[in-house]
Amino acid sequence: RGMVKLRSVKKIYPNGSCGLLDVNLEVKRGDFIFVTGPSGSGKSTLLKLLYGEERPTDGEVIVDNCNVGQLRGHKLSLLRRRIGVVFQDYKLIPRRTVTENISFVLWAQGFTHKEIERRLVPTLKLVGLQHKASCFPEELSGGEQQRVSLARAIVGTPPLLLADEPTGNLDPDNSASVLKILQKLNNFGATVIVTTHDERLLRMANKTVVQLRDGQLFQG
Ligand code: ADP
Ligand code: ADP
């Protein structure tokens, strides 16, 4: 039982741009892999197919035993709750505090107030932001904002965590702390897929790396 399986996946965008070309990939439960490759090689496309933001033109995208390309509406939302996503630009809600940004997801999923409280503090601790709980995003450094976005991605304990260039805007120290958090989650059992072209991050992490070039995947 793998966590992610791509079978002959092709993604051609409506304007004719090639996102991915015949990609095969298997990621087992509990794996931690990096997807690297130059800008425009298809890294974001790969992640978008995994969380159902885009549909494959051809082939199958299987996540947690679901055929993502065929899910619609409520079924797609249910799968997305099981996938945490982190972006290079954080995507925090500006006029909401750290606590609100993190609990919003749980609230939207119908968690009780009590359950939200129960999850919030350990998650804030995990990312080292207990002391910033009442701050607004603009009051935080880039590294702190990225840790809030990590907290938001993981507060629902998703079995799959996707991160698209999570250290793209961060200095080496902040990149290292983001990596540490990702590794900790992986140790707790989450499957982690990270896109990056940060060579330093790849060296530091020493995990499996797959390469994309012009929409094609090379392993090893
Ligand atoms: P990366 O994340 O590696 O930079 P992307 O997956 O963003 O690569 O892009 C892969 C290719 O698909 C690029 O040629 C890009 O221009 C194209 N592409 C990505 N998103 C879209 C879109 N929404 N519409 C058209 N082309 C797109
Ligand atoms: P858009 O589709 O243009 O991203 P949204 O209404 O989805 O706009 O999002 C508005 C803001 O809320 C964005 O900053 C976005 O990142 C954030 N947001 C969206 N979904 C969630 C979520 N599930 N949890 C926390 N913040 C979210």
UniProtKB/TrEMBL annotation:
Offer an example of a GO molecular function term for this protein: ATP binding
Tell whether Transcription regulation is among the UniProt keywords: no
Please name the GO terms of the biological process aspect recorded for this protein, alphabetically.
cell division
Instruction: Indicate the family of this protein.
Output: Belongs to the ABC transporter superfamily.
PANTHER family cross-referenced by the UniProt entry: CELL DIVISION ATP-BINDING PROTEIN FTSE (PTHR24220:SF470), IMPORT ATP-BINDING PROTEIN (PTHR24220)
User: What does the subunit comment say?
Assistant: Homodimer. Forms a membrane-associated complex with FtsX.
Which protein is depicted? Cell division ATP-binding protein FtsE
From what organism does this protein derive? Funiculus sociatus GB2-A5
Organism lineage reads as: Bacteria, Bacillati, Cyanobacteriota, Cyanophyceae, Coleofasciculales
